[in-house]
Design brief:
The chain starts with 12 loop residues before the first helix and ends with a helix. It has one domain. The protein is mostly helical.
Length: 65
């Protein structure tokens, strides 16, 4: 593992998934096909800034999926 995704900066499994996908991309590692949805969501919120914006992006993604 690149690291343990826990603690005060990781408040949910959603945020942990986003951090994992970001780390995988930065290391140039392939994201398995069954986890590509995590990477897709992470791309949409990577630079969103706030939790409220992250939640809005996640809800919008699920509404169109």
């Amino acid at each position: 593992f690149l690291g343990v995704m826990s603690g005060p900066l990781v408040r949910s499994s959603y945020r942990a998934g986003r951090l994992w996908a970001t780390a995988m991309r930065k290391k140039g590692r392939e994201i398995p096909a069954h986890l590509e949805h995590i990477a897709h969501i992470a791309e949409g919120i990577q630079d969103s800034g706030t939790t409220r914006q992250e939640a809005r992006t996640l809800l919008a993604h699920h509404a169109t999926a």
